[in-house]
Design a protein that fits this description.
heterodimer, A: mainly alpha, Cytochrome Bc1 Complex, Chain D, domain 2, 2 domains, three-stranded antiparallel β-sheet, 7 helices, 3 strands, B: mainly alpha, two-stranded antiparallel sheet, 4 strands, disordered N terminus, disordered C terminus
Chain lengths: 226, 612
């Protein structure tokens, strides 16, 4: 017997007792108790009739460095992280979606350089795009991208590189992240850090030249196509 | 640790108001802590080795904490909410000279006094449980919040002393300056109670939206952590919610006493008390959604993911349950008003039959819209036939624009129910009465239309425009209606002639059950939203700072959680019933000897008749 069925039976039992009290007991206070039992039982049954979703802590993707041979291996891990620990899909969609709160990431790997993506993930406030939608006034209440390398999400450098590999692969681009950039546990991060992201990113002519605000340096122009 | 603050496993939300400390215990802990800080630090190092303890034989540490914290929080909400309106009642009695209000205030305070010790008791139990089950978390929080622990203890001591003076000095301070001093004590009681609420709120909100600074004195760190982004929204939301809870529980108490009343005098009194309790609950309930809206807005601003987890993630269905509970509460509160018109004001039922029917239809339609889910529960095949998980016709009601609109309309209807009740049985004699009625009708009609227009328009503008401008405008319009029509009605009725005297004690038994239903709905709502707030932290004790690494680092599905909410609600109701029963034993004994309990008559006339 599943937990839901068991709880439903208990709920029905509680309602049944409440009904019996109302039917056979005339004393006022027990009748009030019976009434309360019916209300609570009904509430439980209704709550049990809607989709039952528990929220489990994100599964830790095992980053077995030895098993990563190719960039595609990294992209596969990146895909899992994208939909689990990274929580990217909580806000972003891949392809148009009415329910997405943040920019559609379809083809993002073709629009932006890996350096820009890296910076967007680890220093999201470096550039604040005022309005990712096409219409309406700019947001004065911007949806802030969290620092992905810090808590509560806290992706490691390896995991971030894997996500970038996934984004590039998903966009039909050659993966520019190499397994050689993966660091062993306990090993310091590679000296090579991503080059400062160019405001122009890796625009490929799809951009519409909307304005973004550099958080600490005023307005700059950049191409960021949607 | 999982969620539930209401449940609050790891959440100090449960430490809310008065509890945390059985007064002496907390004070002792605080004062002892001052000179032995060095020892405390060493002990902290030792306890840090143990992160969690469990008690699986009793359902696990989290479930134990869930029950204890929830009961404590509900009691604390009641104990905090009651002094607000007890004091206001006392002021009304003092200003108008109507003794029945003073007696009612005293009866409210009696319920408060009898619940106070139990609240503190559960606070103490919760504290022991938290220290035992979550030593690492408690150690961390103590390290940050120790200065506020001390402040809390001082506030608790002052609150307790003030309550003693307020309650035991009631009869002795009835006249002249003594009465003024007594009112001042009531004011102080509320000031201290406010601090007793907001201090633990800072601990709880810190867990959801922490502000951690590494540098500075311990006071500076505690202050920074206290003034976190969700602190004030939660303070305001809880303050209002506590008044609502207190009002409806007092209403339910009166409802039960009304059902078992044996004399006409008792029936009159408890009928009136039930009316006052329901009025207080409704009065608080009207602005509550606005406070909730502000809180959600702040949560989104603080952390987009947390907001999405709440509103669009695994908790999204919870808001359908919330809509159902609020809807039933609105219906229950209105139903009680309508019964009041029908039974207490002879002859009014025919006059108001059609408006009541219209209001009922509007409420039901609004509730239907509010409860329409954004996405339907459908199999893949069903979804294909529908062309998605949105219903082709009803799907349009599943979005926030529709829900905000109907919520505002329900508030308007409930407000008008009250106005209708207020005006029933009276004939306005002012020369400008016709004009005033026209203005009121115009304001109400235009407001309703504008709210609907903004709601429909909201579909065609970007979400941010709707959230920042349209929804805010809807709220302001409804507030404008209340702030316009209430004083206008009061002015009108000042010179009105009473055509039909209000007759208390004639309500049918179902009125008592309606009051009980309202109280149960409010309690369930508090348990539900506590679960939501705690679950929004997902697998974090302190969001982004301290992860829950226990075996309970998950949030249960709604069905399981709802069963716990029901259990907690039932335990709380029984506990309160027991406390109130004990507290009124003496009154019953006195009544048996011919003297009615402290509260006496349900009306001014009754007061005069009985010579009180």
């Amino acid at each position: 017997m599943s937990e839901v069925v068991l709880l439903q039976l208990i709920g029905l039992g509680v309602i049944g007792v409440g009904v019996l009290i109302l039917l056979f007991i005339q004393s006022r206070f027990p009748r009030v108790i019976g009434f309360v039992m019916i209300v609570l039982g009904l509430f439980s049954l209704i709550a049990l009739s809607i989709p039952q979703m528990a929220s489990l802590p994100p599964a830790e993707e095992k980053f077995d460095v030895a098993s990563i041979k190719t960039a595609n291996d990294m992209a596969m891990i990146g895909q899992k992280i994208f939909f689990s620990k990274g929580q990217c899909a909580l806000c972003h969609s891949i392809g148009p979606s009415e329910s997405a709160r943040c920019p559609d990431l379809k083809g993002i790997g073709a629009k932006l350089s890996r350096e820009f993506i890296y910076e967007s993930l680890t220093q999201p406030q470096a550039y604040i795009y005022l309005d990712y939608r096409h219409e309406g006034p700019p947001k004065d209440y911007p949806a802030r991208m969290p620092h992905i390398n810090k808590n509560p999400i806290g992706l490691s450098n390896n995991e971030i590189l894997s996500v970038i590999a996934f984004l590039q692969q998903m966009s039909g681009e050659p993966i520019t992240v190499s397994p050689s950039e993966i660091t062993m546990p306990g090993q310091p991060a590679p000296v090579k850090t991503p080059a400062p992201a160019s405001p122009k990113g890796k625009a490929k002519g799809k951009a519409k030249g909307k304005a973004v605000m550099k958080a600490d340096a005023g307005l700059v122009a950049m191409a960021y196509g949607h | 640790m999982r969620n539930h603050e209401a449940s609050h496993g790891r959440d100090l939300g449960g430490l809310n108001a008065w509890g945390l400390s059985v007064a002496g215990l907390a004070l002792l802990a605080g004062l002892l802590g001052l000179p032995v800080t060095g020892w405390a630090e060493e002990a902290a190092g030792a306890s840090a080795q143990v992160s969690y303890r469990d008690f699986p034989q009793l359902g696990g540490s989290r479930n134990i904490i869930w029950v204890i914290a929830q009961i404590h929080l509900l009691l604390a909400g009641f104990v905090l909410g009651v002094p607000i309106f007890a004091w206001l009642c006392e002021i009304v009695g003092w200003k108008t000279g109507e003794k029945r209000y003073d007696k009612l205030a005293k009866e409210f305070t009696k319920l408060l006094t009898s619940s106070y010790a139990t609240t503190a008791l559960f606070g103490g139990i919760l504290l022991f449980m938290l220290i035992g089950f979550y030593p690492k978390l408690m150690n961390y929080l103590t390290d940050i919040f120790f200065p506020s622990f001390v402040f809390y203890c001082v506030m608790f001591l002052l609150e307790t002393a003030t309550l003693y003076l307020y309650w035991y000095g009631w009869d002795a301070m009835q006249e002249g300056r003594a009465k003024v001093f007594h009112l001042f004590l009531g004011f102080l009681l509320n000031v201290f109670a406010f601090f007793i609420m907001v201090v633990p709120n800072s601990w709880a909100t810190f867990q959801a939206s922490p502000v951690v600074i590494a540098e500075g004195s311990s006071l500076a760190r505690a202050w920074a952590a206290t003034w976190n982004p969700t602190w004030w929204p939660v303070n305001i939301h809880r303050l209002i919610a506590n008044v609502v809870l207190g009002g409806f529980i007092c209403g339910a108490y009166a409802g039960v006493r009304y059902l078992s009343a044996k004399s006409a005098e008792e029936r009159e009194h408890y009928d009136w008390m039930g009316y006052v309790g329901n009025f207080i609950g409704v009065f608080g309930m009207l602005p509550l959604p606005f406070a909730g809206y502000w809180l959600m807005r702040e949560i989104y601003q603080y952390n987009q993911q947390m907001g999405i987890t709440l509103m669009g993630g695994f908790l999204s269905w919870l808001f359908i349950l919330q809509a159902m509970l609020i809807g039933v509460l609105f219906l229950g509160a209105n139903y009680y008003f309508w019964m009041g018109i029908t039974y207490r004001i002879p002859g009014a039922e025919t006059k108001y039959k059609k408006p009541i029917l219209a209001m009922l239809v509007i409420l039901l339609l609004c509730l239907g819209v509010w409860m329409t889910p954004h996405s339907l529960v459908a199999s893949l095949e069903e979804a294909r036939k529908l062309g998605g998980t949105h219903h082709p016709l009803l799907g349009v009601f599943g979005v926030m624009s529709a829900k905000m609109t109907v919520a505002n309309l329900m508030i308007l209807v409930t407000f008008m129910s009250f106005i209708m009740y207020w005006r029933a049985g009276k004939e306005e004699t002012a020369t400008w009465a016709k004009l005033a009625r026209a203005v009121m009708s115009g304001v109400l009609g235009v407001a309703a239309i504008v709210v609907i227009v903004l709601g429909v328009w909201g579909y065609f503008v970007p979400a941010i425009v709707r959230i920042n401008y349209f929804s805010v405008a809807q709220v302001l319009i409804v507030l404008f209606v209340m702030l316009t029509i209430t004083p206008l009605t009061a002015l009108l009725l000042k010179s009105a002639r009473t055509t039909t005297e209000m007759v208390w004690g004639r309500m049918p038994p179902r009125a008592g059950y309606a009051l009980v239903l309202n109280a149960v709905m409010v309690i369930l709502l508090m348990t539900l939203m506590g679960y939501a707030r705690s679950s929004s932290r997902v697998h974090w004790h302190i969001y982004g700072v301290m992860r829950d690494s226990s075996e309970y680092a998950y949030s249960p599905a709604l069905g399981y959680a709802a069963a716990f909410m029901s259990l907690n609600t039932f335990i709380f109701c029984m506990l309160v019933a027991f406390i109130f029963w004990v507290a009124t034993m003496g009154d019953k004994a006195k009544a048996g000897h011919g003297a009615m309990s402290a509260m006496a008559g349900g009306s001014h006339e009754l007061d005069e008749r009985s010579g009180r």
